[in-house]
Model the fold of this input.
Amino acid sequence: MEYFLELFLGGLTRGSIYALIALGYTMVYGIIELINFAHGEIYMIGAFTGLIVAGLLTMYGFPGISILAIALICAIIWSAAYGFTIEKVAYKPLRGAPRLSPLISAIGMSIFLQNYVMLAQTSDFLPFPELVPEFEFMKGAGSIMSSSELVIIAMTVLSCIGLTLFIKFTKLGKAMRATAQNRKMAMLVGINVDMVISATFVIGSSLAAVGGVLIASHIGQINYYIGFIAGIKAFTAAVLGGIGSIPGAMLGALVLGLTEAFATGYVSSDYEDVFAFCLLVLILIFRPSGIMGKEKTQKV
Amino acid sequence: MNFFLTAGCDSFAHAIKKSFLAAVWFAFLTFPILVIKVNTIQNTVVWHWQKIGYMALAIFFGSFVWRWLLARKELKEDATKKESRGEALLTKIQSNNTLKFGALAVLGLIAVLFPQVSSLYQTNIMISCLVYVVLGLGLNIVVGLAGLLDLGYVAFYAIGAYAYALCNMHWGIGFWFMLPVGALFGALLGLLLGFPVLRLRGDYLAIVTLGFGEIIRLVLENWGDVTMGPSGISSIARPDFFGIKFSISGSTTYMYYIMVGLMVFTIFCVNRLQNSRIGRAWLALREDEIACQAMGIDKVKTKLMAFALGATWAGMAGVIFAAKTTFVNPASFTFWESAIILSIVVIGGMGSIRGVIAGAVILILVPEYLRDFAQFRMLLFGAIMVLVMVFRPQGLISAKRKIYEYTASKTASAANE
Done:
């Protein structure tokens, strides 16, 4: 039972991280129908920024919890800046181009960013300091759940609630929903569509940065390559829930995280990533619109 | 002056200001990752301030070019598409039979003499370039002609390589028998993947093929009993000539001629396929899937053929790769290999045979000869993919379409090609 509980909590943690990244995919897809292939790299850049900032602060003797807060804020700022710039450079000039073009441009961007980080930093695995302090009360409760797992889950829940409220009630959120429904009509009623798209990239990238710092601190090492697998899995989660739908992304991420945790726990840990990919292939074949997605009729 | 004033800048000062802001923005953007190197174990920090200076300078001047190119692209979109000078020359050569055969004869002579006059090292590089030409032409069928974005193409390449490696290791089966068998394996796997993904469109297809490629790689890595896991299979036999074995330098030359032969065969087949019924169906499928179905084209058959035929050449190239390096391991078949092949197709010009050859020569040979530059190779691949998509989506050499022109004075139509 304890093993089951451990796997369940591990799956919950994984799912939360996937959810943070998947929200970015889903938001961008909902608005411009583009798979932002470089989104995983934003997550990676968030983790690297977190590492650099945390390393600097540790050296100057800042107290533990402030390091976490400042590293998170810096990661959010830079990831958001990268997301914003990527959209302006690689996607905006391609509005109205055939659908394959922005996708190839996104793949190019993803390759570029990985190699940029690899050349500027290193291709080796870098150790990441533990930023989340061990809480006192958790020690008594046994080793089932670490405090960093608790922080990850809490952060995800807070982000999801915040995002949902933002999209439901703010002016920008309403503009986003309008743009997602019909871009031309949104333009006609005076919505600055370019601004809405930029805002979408900024918000999605910020969430990915939070995920990047927290998961890096939880695992303890990072590499220029981490964005690729994380990005693919988050995309799987987004598709699983129905891409374009925000509650769908959260649900899909949880399902994927739990599936992976139980499959590695009870079947085999060698094939960890294979499960995710197989799940992705199966979903796309049998239910391409996902759990909460709507079937779309095609227009000629 | 006109150069600065295009792209929404109303004065020279405005253009300078825009570029200055871009430089500042990129300096901010690249600041932590480019400038600071932190070692959290030894607690040391290294600052590279000079890097950010170079970056800002490059962006300052680059942004002029960027805006100018964007403006030019917008202007061009309305004007009728003109051929570039290089393309016009190629067309001229192709339309004149004497010139065409002369050029072919010169190319053939160069190809035959190349291993005799160059070093072993050069021949080896040329072989890998030719392997990429074949891979590019194969992927060109799927992506360029049929418009199906396949990001897991390397899976078929891996199947060919592993099929030869395993059969050679266990049963000592030779290269010449395995070449067609590898092609067959590739085609079968292509059908196998083609079936489930028939319903998917565009970006979903891309992701599923990517996932499929990764599944194959992970299985190769983890199924240690059969594939020897990450350590791979070594001492695979080189090809022989009717039972005669060569020395290393002899077999490299031999390999080179096999590769030239295979490339010519591939070009011939792809050229014939392009103008066949199925080739036309692929083009129609690429342009508009629904309209294509409305015209009575069997979507299932057309897509499956594209996958299977594309994969056939990947299988053959895989067998050749295993025979050339005499060693295979899963690390040779990562997603990046797929990305390189895709960039060859995209940068060269989707759907154009000449384009794919040019793409392979530029992307494989140029980095090989600029050794010091090699670490920037993937960085440049990525950047070029973005730039090509933004400024020249048809690639370096665009595919020609047959155009029939009607003029009022001439009733006869002039075929152009």
